[in-house]
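subagent[fold] <- orchestrator: predict structure for attached chain, return tokens only, no commentary.
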Amino acid sequence: MEDRLSSVTEITCHAKGIQTLIPKIHILIDIGGQDSKAIRLDDEGRVIDFAMNDKCAAGTGRFLEAMARALQVNIEELAELDKGAEGSIGLSSMCTVFAESKVVSLIADGTSMKEIAYGLNRAIASRTLALVKRLALDMTNLNVAMSGGVARNGGVVRALSSSIGMNIMVPPKPDTVGAYGAALIAKERYHNN
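subagent[fold] -> orchestrator:
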């Protein structure tokens, strides 16, 4: 009875899920609708440390939804909108409201949608890189993966890969990694009793 009532953290569930889907991951970046986190794992997939941004929606899926509305595109289109951009503008992801206002101003000034999308992706990458650096200043020989719904956005994944300086692996259904890990942990506990 006691085991059924025990809890497991979201961090542990994500670690279990990614380590089963893509073994030997050392850094997992999880960006969902409400928060973003970086999780440091050992070679067996155990959590060593994590850093989390949960103070506001900047740099999360909610941020991207607001930016897609400002650009008047659907969220799926936003994922590929940055292709071919030169990277001529910089945007801040520190505040969703300010970033949205800036996007509206850029549109009014005639800035191309692909340049704006590229700036948004770089802003999210910059914010996320700060979380990753809290866990690992040196990324040499570390394998990096991404989970959460934002991992479905190819533009953000490309920007993060560029910022980190290495390829980021993304499982086929990145938004289900945490749930998958929770199910695996429940199954293990069931079989151990």
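orchestrator: received. Logging for downstream: The longest helix spans residues 113-133. The mean pLDDT is 88.
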